[in-house]
Design brief:
This protein is an alpha+beta fold. The chain has one domain (21-79): Nuclear Transport Factor 2, Chain: A. Helix content is 34%, strand content 30%. It has two helices and three strands. The protein has a three-stranded antiparallel β-sheet with strand order 1-2-3, with helices on one face.
């Protein structure tokens, strides 16, 4: 039983040190893209922005144009 507890604690400790996928939530990414484009958010999904975690946000601009923006999931910077 003691070995099992030790193993369980070791696994939990190891998993707790794994970084989260993103510091920026899906909603935060949508809000950042909406502010940057002044448009309406259509979709948000995970993406890879040059080897970094990012959110791919599709927006409809006021002029009726559909644009895709990348939001860095760590810094929140919109590209």
């Amino acid at each position: 039983m003691t070995r099992l507890r030790l193993l369980a604690c070791t696994v939990l400790l190891a998993l707790s040190s794994v970084p989260a996928w993103a510091d920026l939530s899906r909603d935060d990414a949508a809000a950042a893209a909406q502010r940057a484009s002044n448009g309406r958010v259509l979709a948000v999904e995970r993406a890879d922005g040059g080897g970094r975690p990012a959110w791919r946000v599709k927006v409809l601009t006021a002029g009726g144009e559909v644009r895709v923006l990348l939001v860095d999931a760590v810094t929140g910077r919109v590209q």
